[in-house]
Amino acid sequence: MRFKRFIPPVLALGLLAPVFVRAQEAAAPPQDQAAKTPPPAQEKKTAPPIFSYDPAGRRDPFKDLFGGQEIRETQKIVSKVSDMDIDDINLMGIVKTPRRYEAIIAFADGFPMTLLVGQKLADGYVVSIDDEKVVFRKTSDRGIPLAKPRDIVKEIMPEEPSHE
Fold first, then answer.
1. Residue 98 falls inside a structural domain
2. Can you tell me the distance from the alpha carbon of 7 to that of 79, in angstroms, rounded to the nearest whole number?
């Protein structure tokens, strides 16, 4: 917010810069006078210094932290269940079919989708589904594998009894 007050002066300088350049060109000495002045003494060129870094037990700040792995952007387009992160899942309900439980989740823009046991997600998979909760196993975080996978439980909130 503070930099907004600097925008008009910067724009004014940008617009006035060509005027100052032309004024300096007009004030420059003619070519004949410039030819009479001796050229500046040429300085001897030296090689640029060679830098080295000794980490001395510390992390090398020039080393890639992610080891070359590509990290996904936070705003991604989710087109299928396997693109969703566990943290982004909104559990809407659980349905019991004759053979198994299925979790109903809110997909992009609230569109419902079903999850089954064993279904893979972007950062893990579904471990179990019962009548009250879904257990996910998170195996990676932002594309980096976790040393120890952890379980995340998402529960259905029981409906409050109506007071009629």
1. yes
2. 40
* pLDDT tens, residue by residue, 42-70: 666 777 777 777 777 777 776 777 666 66
CATH code for position 93: 2.30.30.830
Sheet with 120-121: strands ordered across: 120-121, 124-129, 133-141, 144-155
What is d(CA 18, CA 46) in angstroms, rounded to the nearest whole number?
Answer: 36
Residue 46 in any domain: the answer is no
Give, in degrees to the nearest 5, the angle at Cα 10 between 6 and 15. Answer: 150
Would residue 95 count as lying in a domain? yes
Given a cut of 80, is residue 23 above it in pLDDT? Answer: no
Range of the domain at 148: 81-155
Pair (85, 148) in one structural domain: yes
Same domain for 148 and 86: yes
What contacts 164, CB < 8 A, 6 or more positions away?
none
**Distance (Å, whole) CA 19 – CA 26:** 11
